[in-house]
Amino acid sequence: MQGFPDELVAVDLGSAAISMRVDATLYPLDALYGAAYVFLDRCYVLLDRPTPTETRVTLSWKKGEPPEGALRALAGEFANELLSCAWRSKINEENRAMIEAATAQALGGAMGPPSLDDLEKFDFTDEAFEDPLGIAMSWEEKYGKKADGTSATRRGPHKEPK
Amino acid sequence: MTEVRFHREIYRGTAVDEAVKALAAYATFDLAEEKDHWVVRVSAKDARRERRVAGELGNYALGLTVKARGAR
Amino acid sequence: MNLVQLKKRSTSFAMPFKHRDVGGKVLITSTEGNFLLLTHEEFAAFASGDVPRESALYARLRDRNFVRAEANVAAIAERIRARKTFIHYGPNLHIVVVTLRCNETCVYCHASRAEMSATHTDMTPEIADATIDKIFATTNPNVTIEFQGGEPLVAFDVVKHIIEKARERNKTAGKRLELTMVSNLSLMDEEKLAYLVENKVQICTSIDGPEHLHDKQRKLPGLSAHKKATYWIKRINDEYARMGLDPTLYHVEALLTTTREALPRWKEIVDTYVALGCRALFLRPVDPFGFADRTGPRVEYPRAEYMEFYRSATDYILELNKQGVEILERFAAIFLTKILGGEDPNFLDIRSPCGAGIGQIAYNYDGKVFTCDEGRMLHEMGDSTFLIGDVGTSTYREMMGHETVQAMAIASNLDAQPDCVNCTYQPYCGVCPVHNHKTQGTIFGRMRESTLCAVHKGIQDYLFEKIGSGDPEVMAILQRWTTVRDRTHFLQTCAT
Q1: Which of A18, A27, A46 to mutate to probe the B interface, most B CBs <10 Å?
Q2: Who contacts C424 (Cβ-Cβ below 8 Å, separation ≥6)?
Q3: Model confidence pLDDT, tens digit, residues C209-229
Q4: Which domain holds residue B37?
Q5: Beta carbons within 8 Å of C306's beta carbon, 6+ residues apart
Q6: 3-state SS assignment for residue A107
Q7: Beta pairing class for C17-22 and C25-30
Q8: Where are the beta strands (DSSP E) in C296-405?
């Protein structure tokens, strides 16, 4: 295919498909997922792993005969999207704290505090967090009298000291 | 018959199962397991339909895998 | 054998910066949006850390916080804070599409207007009331309700209903409320005008240039759309003057949609706007939404041609300014406010993150709610990706917390975007995830292939060339364009 190394991109005109060999060390699987997902509406996408360090991407034209140049365009666009996804993945790793802070602030600022109606709909029945030291237990739960009037033995999820 | 091979490190098994279920009305599916792949053999009434169902199967399984955040 | 000694570059002299060749100089920008234009020699010295402390270059770099040893971190933080104040609040712009019906047919119609018989596309009073509930739930103390269509004057009763209910509601809500309408003006009459003026509704319209161009692109059966629009622009402006309002501040705003036919007619277009008393001209390129998707072969053009048009038109506007004509170019004003003013004018399409959901919401006639006007336009084209709720069934918080809004906030954050993350214009720029989705199939997009990125980069290149030209008269004009005067007359005062 013009413009692509023969050993990396192959065309199967009979199947109206192209297959690309992608170095898995350069393009992590997340990037492949991201790029492949973008193309699901335009073509059939199949990923495979012929060797541990290589992913093969097969893009098949969905309907009828692809117009001239369409398969080449598909390969080119996929390669660009794959690069974009791979780089974005790295950027997100490096800038994660900044992105999370900005997103949290933007959404928090827009949503505002919950109203009483919103709080009414919250489900408080589930345990919110693990409590290995029994900190969230009230004093009564831990030390309160039992129904027969005797003091409760100390309860709690932690073990009694030896 | 068209064979679609889903690599276990790339596709989630449950995604492949769900994709097969979703397309059950359109073809006959024969499932097999190999060391590295889930293999689905697709048989439909004609070659064109078979190609289409096999393609949609791959897309569906990939979509569900991506939605579930990967093969594992 | 001659060996070249490669001198290791200093990594301790400079604060983080990005650079770009612009107009024969090297532009450097910092994270917080400070900038300098350097000669190539100055840039080489800066980049290698070879700037004598007593030199004029050192002083320039220090004063703009480019020198690491003397960086004023508090000032940097304050500058970043000033640029991002919008992030603390919810949507201020609420676009209400009161009907899809329209009496004009525009070749690029982004709104996918409907025929005049399609009365089912008029917003009902019940949906209008539910829309008002959602509008006033915003966390933003500022609220602008913008009436759009189709043609909003077709459903004037709905417009009046919303105005009256909104004003009533604001008596207790206490928002800084403004009302605006985007109209082709062809259905305006004295009665409607009196109502809109009395209720302080700001009016905005479209003018595509001289009459022959405007009427060719905007068909009004049996009539001249241009004649109608220009008549009412003058009438409304006269009414404001009669009321004693400053005409330099109070006048009808007009927008241009640049089609291929407009490209060679930049001078006629600017002259048309000046003759109409407009003080601003927004040289907007055509968008890939609505009818423009189908009429693309007729209206679209390579962005390099748009940039030629933009440069010629804006050069001419600058010349007119030198002759005392007060008119600015809106894109330039938006970028210059960020570049020269260090502030963000909160133009929702050019900020990071963008305003989708968190800065603006679009309410369709049927009660469906979208992240933005572009998202709504896409829905009318059959793609409902950017639907976030319904005024009848969704709460405000549900819509703000919608996963699509979250995705848009992340996708439009330039700190997460390949290319943008390293771009010299990052402090001033913005992306449109809806545009990316439509043109490239992903809300993240690939900026090297984005026509919107090409426009933003092209305009900023142009502006920095002008800034770097050293022409004091041009600098004074550009500074004037950053001045925003409050149009307090249009502020809705709703006495309790």
Answers
A1: A46
A2: C18, C19, C20, C27, C28, C29
A3: 999 999 999 989 889 999 999
A4: 2-67
A5: C258, C263, C285, C455, C458
A6: helix
A7: antiparallel
A8: 328-329, 360-363, 368-370, 387-390
Query: How far C434 CA sits from the closest chain A CA (Å)?
Result: 14
In chain A, the domains with their CATH numbers are: 9-96 (3.30.70.60), 127-162 (no CATH)
Angle at C283 between CA C278 and CA C286, to 5 degrees: 130
Q: Cβ of B62 and A62 within 8 Å?
A: no
Task: Please name the residue of chain A whose CA is at the shortest distance from the CA of residue B63.
Answer: A37
Chain A residues with CB-CB distance to C91 below 8 A: 110
Which of A84, A87, A117 is the best mutation test for C, with the most CBs of C within 10 A?
Answer: A84
Could you tell me which of C93, C33, C23, C15 has the C-alpha nearest to residue C340?
C33
CA distance B32 to chain A (A): 17
Lowest mean pLDDT among B38-47, C129-138, C244-253: C244-253
What would the pLDDT profile of A96-155 be if each residue is shown by its tens digit? 999 999 999 999 999 998 878 777 777 777 655 566 666 666 777 766 655 555 554 444
Query: What is the value of ipTM here, to two decimals?
Result: 0.93
Residues of A in contact with B70 (CB under 8 A): 29-30, 33
Q: Packing angle between helix C330-339 and helix C472-481, nearest 10 degrees? A: 100
Biggest CA-to-CA distance, chain A: 89
Whether residues B65 and A33 touch (CB distance < 8 A) is answered with yes
**C-alpha closest to that of C247 among C212, C271, C278:** C278
User: How far is residue A94's CA from residue B4's CA, in Å, rounded to a whole number?
Assistant: 37
Min Cα distance B66 → chain A (Å) is 6
Single-letter amino acid, residue C303: R
Instruction: Give the total number of structural domains in chain B.
Output: 1
For residue C17, what are the β-bridge partners? C30
Compare CB distances from C415 to A39, A42, A95 and report the shortest one's residue: A95
Contact A47 B10 (CB under 8 A): yes
Give the single-character DSSP code of C14.
B
Helix axes A29-38, B47-67, angle to 10 degrees: 130
Instruction: Give the 3-state secondary structure of residue C425.
Output: coil
Tens of pLDDT, residue by residue over C88-114, are 999 999 999 999 999 998 887 777 678
Interface test with A, best of C31, C83, C87 (most A CBs within 10 A): C87
- Whole-model pTM? 0.87
Q: Is the pLDDT of residue A161 over 80?
A: no
- Which of B56, B62, B63 is nearest residue A47 as measured by Cβ atoms? B62
Instruction: Using the structure block, give the residue that is written with the tokens 């927008």.
Output: C255
Is residue B72 in some structural domain?
A: no
Q: What is the CATH number of the domain that holds B37?
A: 3.30.1370
CATH architecture for residues C86-375: Alpha-Beta Barrel (3.20)
Q: Which residues contact C399 (CB under 8 A, 6 or more apart)?
A: C134, C357, C361, C369, C388, C389, C405
